[in-house]
Design goal:
- The chain is α+β, with helices and mostly antiparallel strands.
- Among the domains are: 8-44, no CATH class; 47-181, no CATH class.
- Helices cover 46% and strands 7% of the residues.
- It has helices at residues 48-61, 80-83, 129-142, 145-149, 153-158, 160-164, 170-181, 191-196, 206-210, 217-224, 231-244, 251-257, 266-269, 274-278, 293-303, 317-323, 332-336, 348-353, 356-359, 364-367, 372-394, 398-421, and strands at 8-11, 14-22, 28-34, 41-44, 101-102, 105-106.
- The strands form two sheets. The protein has a four-stranded antiparallel sheet, with no helix packed on it. A two-stranded antiparallel sheet has the order 5-6.
- A hairpin with a 2-residue loop joins β5 and β6.
- The chain is elongated, with a radius of gyration of 36 Å.
- The termini are far apart.
- 24% of the residues are buried.
Length: 422
């Protein structure tokens, strides 16, 4: 008999095909048909129904999580319980989406919330960065704290700015620090890791921040210049730093503390010599965002002493720039006494935080020395302030306005009569 074509087997006088059915790249099924002496029968290596169910499961829930014995590719949140957890899966919207193309690129899909098995999710890092980002977004929004704990640490660091924009619970954002820190102690976290983690740093517990290596000048300066820390956090950190460094009152350490000065008790700051305040660098009071009005007025009083900068009428442009956010507590009459050329040191950041009631005292001659950006901020603040006062006046009852006008008329008439009598 002639040779059978490829894909066929010869048995007796019949040719029976050997069929390979490909459902996907991950699922293959081979059905071989063989003859029998009495009757023909078909034997399958796998049940087609089970294979179809696997395809549907992959489409809805994503691939099964691989063997997690190699834990280096994942965060420290992978524990022995997770290694035995058969429910771990990759929630993804990537399955069966290759047919959707836009500009010859596949689209991205958000996994269905109903298909995300909360508490058993892991993030699959692929070359499709957009789909990976969407999958991570689904885990943050729909997942639990345990799901976030399983995220890769390097991915959290690279996506810290995007994660900080999510409006999710603070517990989930704080869990990212556990992911980044891993199995290391807090004191061993490097300044490079902290710099990458800067957008999420404000969500860490104050006691956890105090466990950092505060004796490292880079870490101390990093905490002192962070713009989003509140007064409680800087208070706990400053208390710990004062115990660690007994020479904290020296100017070189005060220049590194920056915003941490808001956490130092004022009783300690009163003991510092007046000439020490004159040795502070110009950027220190630009970072004191955690201070309240009372603390800012205290530092303003210390900076305006005779051995420091003196009164407002003696300031120059360099002195105004060194005061930074302390200018927000300068009274309006003192602002009017500043030399016009000295206002060239007023920055946009300070102008944005000043009160419009005090800014109304600035003269036209002083405004000529302001740069364009601070001047624009000033005009917007005064316009908003005047419009607010006008709207509040319009909301007054008509009878109240008439009563005020009658009182003013009577007072004026009474004053005229008194003058005539005199």
């Amino acid at each position: 008999m002639a040779d059978a074509p490829s894909g066929y087997e010869i048995c007796d006088a019949y040719q029976y095909p050997t069929t390979i059915i490909e459902f996907d790249n991950h699922f293959k099924q081979k059905i071989i048909t063989r003859p029998n002496a009495d009757k023909l029968h078909t034997s399958a290596e796998e049940d087609p129904y089970e294979t179809f169910q696997d395809v549907i499961y992959t489409f809805l829930f994503g691939d099964h999580a691989p063997d997690l014995q190699d834990k280096e590719n994942y965060s420290s949140g992978i524990n022995e319980t997770d290694l035995k957890n058969k429910l771990l899966h990759y929630p993804t919207g990537q399955a069966l989406r290759k047919a959707e193309l836009f500009a010859n690129e596949p689209s991205v899909h958000l996994p269905f919330a109903e298909m995300v098995h909360r508490g058993h999710c892991m993030l699959n890092i692929t070359d499709d960065h957009m789909q990976t980002a969407v999958d991570a977004f689904a885990i943050f929004v729909e997942g639990t704290v345990e799901d976030i704990k399983r995220l890769p640490a390097d991915y959290v660091l690279r996506s810290a700015r995007t994660i900080s924009m999510l409006k999710i619970s603070r517990e989930k954002l704080a869990m990212t620090w556990i992911v980044v820190k891993g199995s290391n102690d807090t004191i061993h976290v490097s300044p490079e890791v902290l710099e990458m983690y800067r957008p999420l740093f404000k969500h860490i517990n104050a006691r956890e921040m105090a466990r950092l290596n505060l004796l490292d000048d880079r870490i101390l300066n990093y905490i002192g210049t962070h713009p989003d820390l509140d007064r409680h956090q800087v208070g706990v950190i400053a208390s710990k730093y004062i115990k660690l460094n007994r020479r904290w009152q020296e100017p070189n350490y005060l220049n590194l503390m920056n915003n941490l000065l808001c956490g130092v008790p004022m009783a300690f700051m009163r003991k510092i010599a007046e000439n020490i305040y004159l040795q502070l660098s110009h950027q220190v009071f630009y970072h004191t965002r955690a201070c309240d009005s009372l603390q800012l007025r205290f530092y303003l009083a210390m900076m305006t002493k005779t051995q420091a900068l003196g009164k407002a009428y003696s300031w120059n442009a360099l002195d105004v720039s060194r005061l930074g956010l302390l200018l927000t507590e300068v009274p309006g009459r003192d602002l009017a006494s500043i030399k016009p050329e000295a206002l060239a040191g007023l920055t946009t950041q300070v102008m944005a935080r000043m009160q419009p009631e005090n800014l109304r005292y600035l003269t036209d001659h002083q405004l000529q020395f302001l740069s364009d950006k601070p001047l624009n901020v000033l005009n917007k603040k005064l316009k908003t302030f005047d419009g607010r006062n006008l709207s509040s006046f319009r909301q007054m009852p008509l009878c109240f306005i008439v009563f005020i006008n009658v009182l003013a008329f009577c007072a004026q008439k009474y004053e005229v009569q008194v003058k005539c009598f005199v």
